[in-house]
Amino acid sequence: KVVEDDLRDAIATDQLALHYQPLFSADGQTVVGLEALVRWPHPTQGLIAPDRFIPMAEERGLIIPLGEWVLRRAFTDGKRWPGLRIAVNVSPIQFRHRDFVAKVVDALEETGFDATRLELELTEGVVVEDADAAEAAMMELRALGVHLALDDFGTGYSSLIYLRRFAFDKIKIDRSFLESMEATGESAILVHSIVHLGRALGLTVTAEGVETKEQHRFLQALGCHQLQGFLFSRPIPAAEVDVLLGIAP
Ligand code: G
Ligand code: G
Ligand code: MN
Ligand code: NA
User: What backbone phi and psi angles, to 5 degrees, belong to 158?
Assistant: First the structure.
């Protein structure tokens, strides 16, 4: 069982870790970005996945210090990989905090990380509650040069409205569409429609959860811009990113 006090302690004493999952160009040949994904290397329980502690962090107010830790670590690590955009997941609770944009600016300044290399991954949950405040925060972030991606696209109930209203640069097609693609022709039709819609709106279209060569071929043929999934790479520690990019000592 994951315990609140342990998590608070882990955040305060720098015990969390970030892994990075590379995003690839449509041909699968070039790394075009990295998504930071938090892990908790627990002293007795081994590596704990975020599903097991992010919800608790959100309930207990720990998502604010956790989110700040993630930003700082991602920026510090990211400086080793010039030219690559670093994507960071943001919890709706963290995003709605009134100091969120100021905290991002502080972390950028303290680490010297270039704002234009930051991509924040938001979900529909971010904009659902107070759309006006969300829109204002998003405009501030865009003005700084920060990029915004709509994560888990297609799983919400009115994603299309959000695309029209909010200043996203990218959509990430939820991996559930790919999982069911072979089983039902309908999922393939949906993926096709989403890619064309995204492209028509001038957005970067990323597919998540690419696991097979067949999926890769299909997505490449459709004109999906970026691909992410176990076929190309799992999330890996920073040292393995260095090796992948050929910059290891
Ligand atoms: O890495 P993994 O596939 O186990 O991630 C599971 C879930 O945890 C995903 O929905 C992912 O977006 C979320 N997640 C991973 N890292 C972070 C983080 O740093 N902050 C937040 N808020 N969510 C994260
Ligand atoms: O919600 P979000 O998109 O941030 O979730 C990212 C999560 O998806 C990470 O925990 C990562 O481990 C997982 N993931 C990434 N690629 C694949 C894949 O190809 N297949 C599956 N099943 N999960 C993946
Ligand atoms: Mn994500
Ligand atoms: Na996602």
Answer: -150, 45
User: Which atom, in ligand 2's list, is nearest to the CA of 228?
Assistant: 16
Ligand 1 close to Cβ of residue 92 (< 6 A): no
Q: What is the pLDDT of residues 196-210, one digit of tens each?
A: 999 999 999 999 999
Q: Is residue 159 lining ligand 2, measured as CB closer than 6 Å? A: no
Q: Please work out whether the CB of residue 125 comes within 6 Å of at least one atom of ligand 1.
A: no
Q: Which atom of ligand 1 is nearest to the CA of 37?
A: 16
Ligand 2 midpoint to CA 229 (Å): 7
CB 96 within 8 A of CB 134: yes
Q: β-pairing, 85-89 with 204-207?
A: unpaired
Q: Parallel, antiparallel, or unpaired for β 147-153 and 85-89?
A: unpaired
Cβ-proximal residues to 107 (8 Å cutoff; 6+ apart), any chain: 68, 71, 72, 75, 113
The encoded tokens of residue 225 equal 């811009």
Ligand 2 pocket member 21 (CB < 6 A): yes
Q: Which two tokens stand for residue 64?
A: 């604010």
CATH level 3 topology of 4-244:
TIM Barrel (3.20.20)
What size, in residues, is the chain?
249
Domain ranges of the chain: 4-244
Structure confidence by residue, pLDDT tens digits, 48-82: 999 999 999 999 999 999 999 999 999 999 999 99
